[in-house]
Amino acid sequence: MEFYFALLLDTILVSNVVLAQFMGICPFLGVSRKLDSAVGMGCSVTVVLVLATAATWVINTYFLLPYGLDYLRTLIFILVIAALVQLLEITMKKYLPALHRALGIYLPLITTNCAVLGVTISAVDEGLDFLPALVFALGSGLGFLLAMLLFAGVRSKLENCDIPPAFRGMPCTLIAASLVAMAFMGFSGVADGIFSI
Amino acid sequence: MIQDYLLPVGLLSGIGLLAGVALVLAAKFMAVSTDEKFELVRALLPGANCGACGYAGCDDYAAKVAEGKAEVNLCLPGGDSAARRIALTLGRGEVKVVPKTAVVACSCGYTGENTKMRYHGRHSCVAASLFYKGNLTCDHGCLGFGDCVQACKFNAISIQNGLAVVDKKRCTGCGKCAMVCPHQVIWIRPHAAHIHVACINPESGAATRRECKYGCIGCHKCEKVCPTGAIKLQGNIAWTFPELCTKCGACVEACPVGVIRDCFRAAIEKADEPAAVTAAQ
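Structure tokens for the assembled complex are given below, as produced in the milestone run.
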């Protein structure tokens, strides 16, 4: 139990997907303008991450590793993630129309989200078992959601600031993102310290 | 040899094929039939996504109309013609659209003298309002930074001499400006209600007088002079009731501070009464 908790804490705060590993920067900067769209994107990424990790872990362990086909990993993972997201969208449209409308446009975008590919590959690389891999994916997704939420807050503050013309728009957003990322560096070693792993 | 080449190729194409078949099957068995009515109704809406109908954009409103859960006459930018065409398409009977328009309930705005501080912050009403309700002596007036101008999708509102002014010909009454105004100075009222009180300062007459030369001081003169009781004091400010108003203009002339405006007189004289329009099938 302690192991899972440490894993969650580690993936959410210490090695946050966006702010420590710098994956998924595109949606992080693109969709964090408004709080509700940031939450929508974060939730869809979390759902897709867990499902994609479940699928890719099985394929990797039972098909790729026994035959020494590790080098196909990237290719097959992209294929599986893309198919999975499409399948998820069709299913959602049928059975959960309200959720589909809420996540709507963000779902297809996730197909090309590098955070999804990155997390599925690191879950396999770290040699985690099935359940820990799922927890790892869940934690990474929640970390992404947290980063999106925090940054949406920061950006809404920026909206009402008088910014020098040269820094308006993307420059100021990137500076703010770097400051948030620096703040997250303060978490390094926290999980190790608490659980002394 | 076979292990090296055929296995990866087979595995990859196998997974690809499997995913493809799964997607095709899913698309076949879980297809959601879209309503034809939705497409027809959506094509008739203006597509401004202003939200005046009370739904989240034109798509949402069209879906609700197609399901029969919403009235056909809620689209204000589309107005009468859109409502009539939607009603024709769906085979509904008569429809009425009450045209609405934005009204600025402030007569003063930023004149350059009525300030309580020098404001050097961001050029925005919302930002200025965060600091002690803005730089004007009156906490309920139009700040004149023009958040409403940016919110308007129809270029119907502009800032003239520090006060927001609505171009009633362009205004569709969607209410975007009213939503962004931090002091709620902009009201959405029926087109027919063309006499209105351009002040919302709820303080007593003396307090209002100290803050602004053009504020409603609650003197009851309009109330006394009105023959039909269409203008009454609500607290310290006068409020008009368009259904009782005969547009005689007595209150406009009686008002000592000139906050009662007959803002549509010119428009009314030119065109006929733009009140409720009836469309038959």
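Chain A is about 75% helix and 0% strand. The mean pLDDT of chain A is 86. Further analysis is deferred to the final report.
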